[in-house]
Design a protein that fits this description.
Elements: H1 16-29, H2 33-49, H3 53-69, H4 73-86, H5 90-107, H6 110-123, H7 130-136, H8 140-143, H9 151-163, H10 168-179
């Protein structure tokens, strides 16, 4: 009999609560903070995806708390990414995305800097936060990345300028010069 599979494991989705519960119990008994934090993040994400938003968010936040308390940077970045994605409001998404951006920048993790920059860059223009988007382009860690990975940020920048009514005149003047 086939079962629904969790996207990240070979465990049947219906078995995840039981497996996660056991993993968490063992992790707590053996003081395995990273396993506990990762389990809380996985289980929180699963609950959130099942529509149990409050429970899922609480577990994600607890996983982040444990990761931060024990200096588990990669786990903390994973928690921030999931919390930003699952946050119920744009304000909360911004908080977690900014925390993730700052932490990944602090440790020099270019991949995660790009991830959080793209996450923030996608909503800054529409929320009128162009200064924050523009500041990203001054970040040396982000700008040291492969330029092809920055395409979505450049598109967000262009979108933001157009939302503010900028570039329109210049584009018209440009068009006038090419038609002469």
């Amino acid at each position: 009999e086939m079962c629904g599979r969790d996207w990240s494991s070979d465990v049947c989705s219906s078995d995840l609560p039981r497996v996660a519960g056991r993993a968490l119990a063992v992790a707590e008994r053996l003081d395995l903070e990273e396993v506990a934090a990762q389990t809380l993040i996985t289980r929180g994400t699963e609950l959130w995806s099942l529509g149990r938003f409050r429970e899922g968010t609480a577990l994600l936040a607890k996983g982040a708390e444990i990761a931060e308390e024990h200096g588990l940077t990669a786990t903390l970045l994973r928690a921030y990414a999931n919390l930003a994605y699952t946050a119920p409001t744009l304000a909360e998404t911004t908080v977690y995305s900014n925390r993730g951006f700052a932490e990944s920048r602090r440790v020099g993790d270019r991949s995660m800097v790009q991830f959080f920059a793209q996450q923030g860059g996608g909503y800054y223009p529409g929320s009128g936060r162009m200064d924050e988007l523009l500041a990203m382009f001054e970040d040396p860690v982000l700008m040291a990345a492969d330029p092809s990975s920055l395409v979505s940020l450049w598109l967000s920048l262009a979108n933001g300028h157009s939302l503010r009514g900028e570039w329109a005149e210049e584009a018209v003047r440009s068009e006038e010069h090419t038609s002469e």
